[in-house]
Amino acid sequence: MFSHVKELQYNAKPSQPDPVYAKKLQEILGGQYGEMSVMMQYLFQGWNCRAESKYKDMILDIGTEEIAHVEMIATMIAQLLDGAPAHDQEQGAKDPAVEAVLGGMNPQHAIVNGLGAQPNDAAGYPWNARYTIASGNMLADFRANLNAESQGRLQVVRLYEMTTDPGVRDMLSFLIARDKMHQNQWMAAIEELEQTQGAVVPSTFSTEHEIQDVAYSFMNFSEGEESSTGRWANGASLDGKGTFEYVQNPGANGQKPELKPSPAYIHGTPPLDMRIMQNGGGIQPNQQ
Amino acid sequence: MFSHVKELQYNAKPSQPDPVYAKKLQEILGGQYGEMSVMMQYLFQGWNCRAESKYKDMILDIGTEEIAHVEMIATMIAQLLDGAPAHDQEQGAKDPAVEAVLGGMNPQHAIVNGLGAQPNDAAGYPWNARYTIASGNMLADFRANLNAESQGRLQVVRLYEMTTDPGVRDMLSFLIARDKMHQNQWMAAIEELEQTQGAVVPSTFSTEHEIQDVAYSFMNFSEGEESSTGRWANGASLDGKGTFEYVQNPGANGQKPELKPSPAYIHGTPPLDMRIMQNGGGIQPNQQ
Amino acid sequence: MFSHVKELQYNAKPSQPDPVYAKKLQEILGGQYGEMSVMMQYLFQGWNCRAESKYKDMILDIGTEEIAHVEMIATMIAQLLDGAPAHDQEQGAKDPAVEAVLGGMNPQHAIVNGLGAQPNDAAGYPWNARYTIASGNMLADFRANLNAESQGRLQVVRLYEMTTDPGVRDMLSFLIARDKMHQNQWMAAIEELEQTQGAVVPSTFSTEHEIQDVAYSFMNFSEGEESSTGRWANGASLDGKGTFEYVQNPGANGQKPELKPSPAYIHGTPPLDMRIMQNGGGIQPNQQ
Amino acid sequence: MFSHVKELQYNAKPSQPDPVYAKKLQEILGGQYGEMSVMMQYLFQGWNCRAESKYKDMILDIGTEEIAHVEMIATMIAQLLDGAPAHDQEQGAKDPAVEAVLGGMNPQHAIVNGLGAQPNDAAGYPWNARYTIASGNMLADFRANLNAESQGRLQVVRLYEMTTDPGVRDMLSFLIARDKMHQNQWMAAIEELEQTQGAVVPSTFSTEHEIQDVAYSFMNFSEGEESSTGRWANGASLDGKGTFEYVQNPGANGQKPELKPSPAYIHGTPPLDMRIMQNGGGIQPNQQ
Amino acid sequence: MFSHVKELQYNAKPSQPDPVYAKKLQEILGGQYGEMSVMMQYLFQGWNCRAESKYKDMILDIGTEEIAHVEMIATMIAQLLDGAPAHDQEQGAKDPAVEAVLGGMNPQHAIVNGLGAQPNDAAGYPWNARYTIASGNMLADFRANLNAESQGRLQVVRLYEMTTDPGVRDMLSFLIARDKMHQNQWMAAIEELEQTQGAVVPSTFSTEHEIQDVAYSFMNFSEGEESSTGRWANGASLDGKGTFEYVQNPGANGQKPELKPSPAYIHGTPPLDMRIMQNGGGIQPNQQ
Amino acid sequence: MFSHVKELQYNAKPSQPDPVYAKKLQEILGGQYGEMSVMMQYLFQGWNCRAESKYKDMILDIGTEEIAHVEMIATMIAQLLDGAPAHDQEQGAKDPAVEAVLGGMNPQHAIVNGLGAQPNDAAGYPWNARYTIASGNMLADFRANLNAESQGRLQVVRLYEMTTDPGVRDMLSFLIARDKMHQNQWMAAIEELEQTQGAVVPSTFSTEHEIQDVAYSFMNFSEGEESSTGRWANGASLDGKGTFEYVQNPGANGQKPELKPSPAYIHGTPPLDMRIMQNGGGIQPNQQ
């Protein structure tokens, strides 16, 4: 169960309206790596958690914090839209500055949302649940979380560069710090899991059912060999159980595929001989 | 530019058709973390790569390999669908086994694809590009890649458990090994980058513009404190630049938000006084 | 800001696992009118609210409750999936009952979510933000909310009929009661608004800019006249400002549309004369 | 069956082209609450209608009218796009006004649709069927319809404010009047149904299977109590069968959820003891 | 404008309910190539038509017919769902046949649609407008239409094979005939256009701005040469203006791409030298 | 299996950056008819191909070429974005030209992709797999391919008109030529198939199961008869097996649909008599 505190977690007050920037800020609200994504991802991971309770609690603590981040950004966007010039000016008095704003803002902010935030990204594309994952394997999911916080902080930093409004920057400075903590948090949790169960997900699959020959080979599928000079092609593998090998000309070891014709009731392209005689009758699978 | 080798990278021959399993196998072809996702993610990361050429080459090598994995799984699915009983039986002779197959298979495999693979997941949901990311920041993207290979290998392993067909298992054993390599590969590339630029993405944002107070604090947004016992709440932070702190009762430090009424031309809910007097006239912003 | 209480709002314990029912229950979690929809719809309406604070508070109170409902259903689904037989049986010992379960359950519950709830509907389609609305006009939005609670309660009732599990029914009985309250709540809020501002949304648009002739006419676009006998075609209009009229043969009062040919640089179908002479030369807009 | 009348239902002629406004007008054509949504929603409700024929006829009459509205708006958009400057100007002669138009118009109107309307909204997002509902319960569905006409009229009014073109305003004045009628129509139909069957959807579920304690309680999930002063927390409930009650501190009455570990073949995070001993072997569910 | 005729265009009466088949039949109602697609595609092509009126009229005539086809199939589906066993049986008396039906039917048909048709496909995926095209170039669009009628008829035929219900087959026999006509119709319209303007779309682009060398070459991007034996690699090109050529080893004629580093404010991966010195300071683009 | 050649198939170098044009160019990369669509469509058709090997080889050759086209356009877009002014200018020095660029460019190109191409269209909508088809019937699919190449070339030509950059035009001139070849290629393959199996898809369905009366009739569903003058209403049908007929007043030959009330456990609108007596008790299907 949840309860609401009316104050925001941190300041969310722009110094002045800026409807064009409001459109951009939507990315970290309802985008692929916006706050809605981490909020939903963490809540579902927490609710589905089958491990010991310190994990469930930790995941839900951060998931609960993310609801507050969604709230802060939504509040900020509504204020950036305050008094947006979303109506027609008198014929003879069009102001180029107003035109510029109207051209750059998202028209749905006025038409659909009446100067409110929308649960969409900077292109107006709606948030959807396929942005999230809760797999039941915590090491896999914590890697998803570390990625989400990395992409997310990167986007907030880029948005910081796109404004000079002190109020907006103040809020972003808070989010940037929290995203640093959250990257650290998931790195810590990953380290803890990797030390007890190993680095490869899932750790529970027996290696005897893997094709061992190719488990540590970097395969070069191009002509040059620039790719041979990286860490991924030299030295011990990161899981501590193998050695990287560089395969210059990886071969094709499978069959040349040939599929059987489909049965008549599928009405695919008929086999060649039937195709040719067909004008004189052809197959008629539906006769009964 | 690319060229095609007609043989598959590895065997993809089922021992017998199994249209119900074909539906499940779609997940690792066209699902959120299927082979189409890593193929497209790596290709776009490679084409957009602005770093030194060993990275571009490495990323495109693995992207090119993933096209071959898509090819193998598509070929496998087509064969699992061979001769699927996608037509009606005579009224009086319905076979429960056939019924079971028809109930469990994806009807689109017959109606839409004529017993071929489709670029969708196990629920029939089409693959889409929001499954992928190419952010221009390699450390962020390699974390996305490590996550994708972790989720992907987990799903292949689960699918391995769901069949006993030796041919299918043979192909999956190959993919499971390659996904192990790919996890190792991205871990190696991540290590290389972290060592030179630090662990937090992006590394180029000046800490003086972050709210330092909250950059290493784990905040407890629930009553109990199970979450205080993990690595994420104790000791040095993983970026080596701070110390984790556990905040038992994180406060709300922002304003209690109050938004201004919208302008008349937005036709939001009118302010209270106007709402009440309205039946006698009301505001009419569109008079001109 | 939000905080989490570890206990659920109400019991969510099935008497026994039922993975097939888990698939169906997803509808009221992540479907068009599931709990995620009302949660997100109310939260965004609350955050964007520009009216007096009793409304903002009320909307956020119910939005906060809905997060708890999502939590309850997610928890229920995870337990319904406990021990789902998501793996292959030995060749010679296939159990028809197990087969039936495997055929009817959502394979993604095992492959993707590791026996956890997913933020999707009963067809596996992901929740998306276009299920919600926050328009800035409370009367419009409260009608959306009344609709959502009506569709939602209808679906919960249908799901109640589809199970006899006492634990599941217990939770549904709670949700059915809350949805009754929520219907009553929105009806009350609507009544309050309609009494002060009138029943038509938006109330602030001047009637002199409407085509009055057609503002209270029911138009019959078919041959018979069964539609003439309803309340919508007889008596005073519900906004108290007009009288319903039944138009037997509504005419077409607009032009017969004819569009100009597109400019040459659009390369639409060329006008007839150019189309004919084209092989001898044609227009070449791109010459420069 | 349907037949087409070549004249439009009402005038749809702009006074002059305006490609930037064309982009905005797409919202009421192919948006969440545009004419395509009500057209499809009413047609499917009509075709699925299992009640007496006056309802089926009424719903299909209005559904048929909505096709004509889609036609009018599509025609209007095509004319607003007439001669849009969708090509490059000579290098040295860029006109700021042309630039402004090119920046604000939807490039797909030229590239994809050759200066024609598209079945999308103002952000270019395609119309989809999850915007509609046909539930088989008319009271629920008529509430959906009343909401759709309320949101729809609100958007048309906002678009009216965004232009001064007399031809566009003429068409919108017609649509605004029809949307007023349609709101009245659904209110009338709702009143008719509520009077015979009660106000709560569905009316057919026995109250003895509801948790009565919470069926009329407003629950306060925040610290302050502004929400206690509304109609929804005081007096008789709107269904006439209960009394609203305000619950200041709603308790958590459910369990603190704890989920069992998943079976080995799911490869979720292993239980703690297995996780620790794992490097020395671990579980291997796939051995056979 | 449109008007509705209450009778269906043709019979749509199943001999008996079959909820499992109802799920499959959804494909030709709301699928990628279902009747909703051709209905919407033709209506938008007609409304946007800028060519002479015989085309606009023809396109709208067939678009209007398609609404009737949607109506027929929706009606059929509702009847196939009549009395579907969408509720739980008594504990001790589960009927395997009922179970089978419940496993194979779409649960949303009961939960969401109350035994009515839904505007979705056989996987429950909602229809969306990106299934359609109206490009403003009739030759391009008529090819889209011919494709749609070909895929559509193929799917109807496959569904015919999947049932023996005489009532269902009767309706499908009608649709199969109409789809044959519609294929013929678009072939006729295509022939008419190709004869006056040539076969390549668009016909209005000057060939002097094409790279002529590659305008008639089949390029072999694989090792073997089976592809050299088709009509596409031999003889006169179909547009009558060139000769097919088979290129055994098509070369790469472009640059080896190298992209510049991104500016500092983008926070992409820093250039190598900056990456290395970074721990001692690094770039700080946001200092001001 | 595939291998990568580091050079591009053809030049992809703009003469100068143009971030606004980059947004438009996305259409032919990740749009409905962009290069990702033909790439994926051909690859899946090839992998699923059940006909003789010259077809499989041909389809995969062109599918492999399309990967190279995606690569070229992605590379072009990244360069068009070089140095895009995606950050805020000093307060007092806003440059109108910079503003214009910021208003017209896709903000996600900076925020999400760090000045790289994205797998989306010109409206920022992500590519999805429902843009493609692989039906197993080659004649149907080749018509899909001819359509895709027609729509695709039309869009490339329109984009050619929208720029004067010689480098961009050079690349587009190559693509326009290849699209001409690909139209010719599919026309040739279609001709080959039509000559052996007839023009109607599928050719294998027995005409005795079609309603012959309507197999060659053009039906006029409107008042005027402009549609009677086209090739589609006169002369021999294009499949050579019938004669076109123009039906002036096509009748409705089906039933007037009436659906049965739904069972009680569906909780649809109750039948009229139950609806009326309901307040005194009503049906209670869930009593047990």
From TrEMBL, chains A, B, C, D, E, F:
InterPro entries: Ferritin-like, Ferritin-like_SF, Mn_catalase, Mn_catalase_C, Mn_catalase_dom
Pfam families xref list: Mn_catalase
Tree of life domain: Bacteria
Similarity comment text for this entry: Belongs to the manganese catalase family.
Name of the protein described by the UniProt record: Manganese catalase family protein
Organism: Halobacillus amylolyticus
